[in-house]
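Please, structure for the following, as tokens.
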Amino acid sequence: MPRTMTQVQTWQKIARNWANFTAPSRPSLGDCKVYELWTKRTLSTLRSPNILVLGVTPEIRNLLFKYSLTQDAKVYLADINKGMFRAMRAFLNFNNPNEYFKPCNWLKMPFQREFFDFIIGDLVITNLALKDKEKFLKEIKRLLKEEGRFVTRILVYKENRNRNFNLSQVLNQYFQQYQKAQLSLRDTLGYFYSAIVQETYYLNEKGEYSLKYLIADFEKLRKEIKDPLKKIFLGKFLKDYHSVLDDKVWVGMTQPAHERLVKKHFQIEKIESVRDHPFGDRYLIYVLKKK
């Protein structure tokens, strides 16, 4: 996962604005229930298990706290960004004395072979370049015990894009839901972001998805909007999301391509989806075991 200084700075911006984000950019309550289910199934009979968290996602760390308390679980956090680690403390429910932060590259982590009973990470593989995804899976396989599980949520893409995608129409859709009090402002902005950023995957041949591919479209849209409330709504989005994520690039794959890659090293025990946000059919939780 080598990251440039620009990428580290981007993640620091994300950390400072974490409170503004919502599912599916962050794990939803439904996602956390699935994570909890498979954590319990994996660790229920173990004493002092070792758990690896890829990243510093506070929702995951909050649900793991009880395993440290009741089963003496050791929780290791692997992330290259110390600033992200520090910023996420504000979102923790408890201070876990059994939690250990290890600044490292996910492609080469400082742990011995088969050290972990359970590995978990939210939307981690999309942070890796296409050329690094298989290296990452090999490293996870190296670290995971034979009977362990790797559980991770992944954004997967359909083979064909929505040919009717129109930024202005998507904005109108979510703005109307907000006006009718069908969604909170925070959820409306988050869903609008997820709906549009996913479409940028189809605008390039690199497998990337990023708001940077919509910069010209946003400039045009801002000039066209006449409704003052809608203009304020768009301005709020540009402040909370676009200014934070305008240079962040993720790298996606279609679901079949992703599963072909995963199956080289793991067996897919289960694929879970949730229904507490509109994108459950794309943000899938994979439960993996070593081959």
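The domain at 5-158+251-290 is CATH 3.40.50.150 (Rossmann fold). The chain has a mean pLDDT of 93.
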